[in-house]
Amino acid sequence: MKRDLISITDYSKEEYLKIMDLAAEFEKNPNQDLLKGKVVASLFFEPSTRTRLSFETAINRLGGKIVGFADPQNSSSTKGETLHDTIKMVSNYADLIVMRHPLEGAARYAAEVSPVPIINAGDGANQHPTQTLLDMYSILKTQGTFDNLNIFMVGDLKYGRTVHSLLMAMSQFDTPIFNFIAPAELQMPEEYKMFLRENDIRYFEHREFTDIISEADIIYMTRVQKERFSDPMEYEQVKNIYILRNSMLENTKPNMKILHPLPRVNEIHTDVDKNEKAYYFTQALNGMYTREAIITHIMNLK
Amino acid sequence: MSNDTTKKKLKLKVSAIKEGTVIDHIPAQNLFKVITILGLDKIENQITFGTNLESQKLGSKAIIKVSDKFFENDEINKIALIAPDAKLNIIRDYEVVEKKIVKAPEIIKGIVKCFNPKCITNNEKVTTCFKVLSTSPVTLRCRYCEKMTIGEQMRML
After folding, report:
1. Interface contact B118, partner A, CB < 8 A
2. Which residues bind carbamoyl phosphate (chain A) (predicted)?
């Protein structure tokens, strides 16, 4: 049976840990010719420079070849071709498909259509599992463990798919505590809070972004994304509410690290960048090792 | 014929059938949805139905009698989402020989539309598929976009 990576909940705790081990190996030795002779299709039905470059660099470092498109304007979907037909065609050519699509559920559907494995590089506001795995790798690398961590999530917790997936993944480990800081309009959806309650996992909700962050092991900042709002007025009202500044970090724990899926707009002030607790740029680098790990796991190369 | 049975027969508002299935306790407002889901609008069997009948439990109920038709469980369970209290009487030679209740399946394919306009199933020709998480209120999780379709949000395809 082929392996895909569509949703973070498709993987077990053991698989998370295996990916972490592989990512650590690739961090030590990023250039390994494991994909030699293989062709990977990189299909970006929605532009995403950051994710695409990270994947394509990972594929290059593994010695694979890449076909595909970076912009839907240059793809057959502008001629009205269905996703079904594009995937059918591309899966004839490639050994693996990495895809980003604006519609939710597109990756799951592609996995049903395609005989070759699919890696979901983001499907609308739904899932972006490789982001979650690189977030996890960053947490493990900086904290040395997944257990007993106090994780603060700040900003857009309603539409932010990265925080939802990270919450689900971290809930697999021992006694996490979650703190949610969000304006009323952008609170963590009830279904995730219900999931935490059902699993006896502690969480707290706050409106104020204050010294409560002194408890944090991880502060996960998110960007309020305009494109996730159906009402532009709602976006205007909430976009500038929570901004992290260097002065707020004085009393935070020494092991604390700040994560952000990037790109940021203004939610982390640039004066934070030089603080050693700022980890978001290294986090992005970790993404490349993690994607090498995911590709080799899915292709059964290690 | 005993006195009791006579009274019962007199009270019947939809005439009895000789062979077939009676589906009772359908919420009146969902009668036509049940008919569509079971494909009763496309078969040639004799069908009688009554609607807006008094019901202590549902307020207003509907009943369908289909002659010479016996449903498979898989087939009948499809109506569980919109008629969770439905009861089936299997009739042979005017007598009830078996009673059945409907049970919501774990997976619903086709039938229901995903609530999320950005779901692939609402944008490309994909058969919908949901996991049934609860039946009161109806809570369905889309296999594709993973979003919930709950209670009043539910629309039939």
Report:
1. yes
2. 50-51, 100, 128, 131, 262-263
Cα A125 to chain centroid distance, Å, stands at: 12
Residue with tokens 């609402």: B122
Measure in Å the smallest separation between the Cα of A123 and chain B Cα atoms. 8
Instruction: Kindly state whether B32 is in contact with chain A, defined as any CB-CB distance less than 8 angstroms.
Output: no
**B12: its two tokens:** 């019947």
- Could you tell me the strand order of the sheet in which A39-44 lies? A65-69, A39-44, A96-101, A118-123
Per-residue pLDDT of chain B (157 residues; tens, 9 = 90+): 455 555 555 566 667 899 999 999 999 999 999 999 999 999 999 999 999 998 888 789 999 999 999 999 888 988 998 898 999 999 999 999 999 999 989 999 988 999 999 999 999 999 999 999 988 888 999 999 999 999 888 888 7
The answer to whether the Cβ–Cβ distance between A82 and B121 falls below 8 Å is no
Residue B129 is assigned to a ligand binding site = no
**Angle at alpha carbon of residue B87, lines to B82 and B93, rounded to 5°:** 135
Q: Can you tell me the distance from the alpha carbon of A144 to that of B122, in angstroms, rounded to the nearest whole number?
A: 44
Return the closest-CA partner of residue A252 out of A282, A215, A198. Answer: A215
| Strand duo A177-181 + A150-154: pairing | parallel
Domain limits of chain B? 18-101, 107-156
**Predicted-assembly ipTM surpassing the 0.95 threshold:** no
Q: Which of A61, A128, A260, A297 is catalytic?
A: A128
Distance CA A172, CA A249 (A): 29
Out of A52, A61, A100, A239, the active site residue is A100
**Chain B CB within 8 Å of residue A85 CB:** no
CB B26 within 8 A of CB B60: no
The C-alpha atoms of residue A65 and residue A68 are separated, in whole angstroms, by: 10
- pLDDT per residue over A223-246, tens digit each? 887 776 778 888 888 788 789 999
- Interface contact B147, partner A, CB < 8 A: yes
Supply the DSSP symbol for B125: S
Work out the angle at residue A232's Cα, subtended by the Cα atoms of residues A227 and A238, and round it to the nearest 5 degrees.
90
Q: Per CATH, the architecture of B18-101 is what?
A: 2-Layer Sandwich (3.30)
pTM flag (> 0.90):
no
Give me the architecture of the A130-284 domain, per CATH.
3-Layer(aba) Sandwich (3.40)
CATH tag, B107-156: 2.30.30.20
